[in-house]
Design goal:
2 domains, two-stranded antiparallel sheet, about 210 residues, 6 strands
Length: about 210
């Protein structure tokens, strides 16, 4: 015979029972599952707190999995945005410097000119999309001579002005002091600006 006890509550649920006889296996906190348990759980502060903690604990594995998936998704989206931003900026730089000599060796323009960085993107992430830091450069200087930075340093101030060059140098020095990370808002703004400037150049060149 299964022992029965009155539904009268114990611990946090003490005093909330109805007094009915309930088998032990159908009791929680001394309350009958089929009579007073749900009422206490949903209508008392102690019951709601118990429900909240239990729900949080039960759903923790799922929430952890969802967070991991979200982090992976956001990381992929950010990397994709970086690629899109790079393409937009480089397209603008190539169009801006179309017909101009190589920023380093000053050889005549060629259609295979690349967008070469003065401060390397892998070392100075904050200057990765800086328009002054990127200029039309021949393949020989950009790839085979790894930027040909000595000549680049001589010609860049002449192109953008000494003040702009000094400001670029200052930004490079500051970037070494911080662990710079791109965020979506910055990348979106730069991409939009590069696309706008590119379209303006295309229209201007078409009207010449």
């Amino acid at each position: 015979m299964i022992a029965e006890k009155k539904c009268k509550g114990t611990g946090k649920a003490k005093g909330h029972g109805c007094g009915k006889l309930v088998a032990a296996k159908w009791r929680k906190y001394g309350l009958g599952i089929q009579c007073c348990w749900s009422k206490w759980l949903l209508n008392t502060p102690a019951g709601q707190e118990f429900l909240k903690k239990t729900t949080f604990k039960v759903t923790e594995p799922r929430r952890s999995l969802e967070k991991t998936r979200k982090d992976i998704f956001n990381t992929k989206k950010l990397e994709t945005l970086k690629v899109n931003c790079r393409n937009a900026v480089h397209n603008y730089i190539k169009e801006r410097d179309k017909g101009k000599p190589c920023i380093s060796c000053s050889c005549g323009w060629h259609e295979n000119f690349q967008a070469g960085h003065y401060y390397k993107a892998e070392l100075y992430s904050a200057l990765k999309f800086n328009f002054h830091n990127i200029n039309g450069q021949c393949v020989q200087c950009n790839v085979r001579l790894e930027g040909n930075l000595n000549d680049y340093a001589l010609n860049l101030p002449k192109k953008i002005g000494q003040n702009a060059f000094n400001e670029l140098k200052h930004k490079a020095e500051e970037s070494k002091k911080i662990n710079f990370k791109w965020d979506r808002e910055e990348l979106i703004l730069i991409r939009a600006e590069a696309r706008k400037l590119y379209k303006i150049l295309i229209l201007d060149n078409a009207n010449d």
